[in-house]
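Query structure, 179 tokens:
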């Protein structure tokens, strides 16, 4: 049975790694739902947060194939209950529609979104939360016909554990190196 998995991949900061990682998904014909790459808390190491729908057997295979890449330090996969996750979104809505329809402001407040700019032609709204929270706000505003633009980030996440698992792995590797 397919479900949504989040893979966290850590690599050295070297050009071309992203292409190598995404090629693993392409070869296995698994669609990447979201991808976010940023520096990690470990200096010189980048963190890739990748989501995809697949079976557990497939995600295990993806993890193993990604870890075979020479510059990949570690790859792990998680289900949503094993991580704390967030996304961010921006919506541009018609300013005249906001003024004419009080329901728009009620929806924004109800969803805990924040108006970040208002001018005579549009209002920019920011919402951070789960995918479901963000899509719920979008659908509510879109049903009123006021959405002019919509963008959302890829997922960012941290594990629910007490320590960064990469740090434990790197410490163990350093111990082995020095005997």
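Result returned for the query:
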């Amino acid at each position: 049975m397919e479900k949504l998995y989040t893979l966290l991949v850590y690599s050295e900061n070297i050009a071309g790694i992203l292409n190598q990682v995404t090629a693993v998904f392409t070869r296995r014909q698994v669609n990447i739902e979201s991808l976010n790459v940023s520096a990690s808390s470990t200096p010189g190491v980048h963190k890739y947060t990748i989501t995809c729908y697949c079976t557990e057997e497939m995600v295990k295979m993806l993890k193993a194939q990604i870890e075979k890449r020479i510059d990949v330090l570690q790859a792990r996969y998680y289900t949503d209950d094993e991580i704390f996750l967030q996304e961010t979104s921006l919506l541009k809505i018609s300013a005249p529609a906001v003024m004419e329809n009080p329901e728009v402001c009620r929806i924004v407040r109800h969803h805990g979104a924040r108006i970040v700019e208002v001018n005579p032609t549009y209002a920019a709204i920011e919402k951070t939360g789960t995918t479901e929270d963000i899509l719920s706000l979008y659908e509510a505003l879109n049903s009123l016909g006021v959405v002019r633009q919509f963008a959302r980030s890829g997922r960012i996440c941290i594990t629910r554990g007490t320590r960064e698992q990469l740090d434990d792995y790197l410490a163990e590797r350093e111990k082995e190196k020095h005997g």
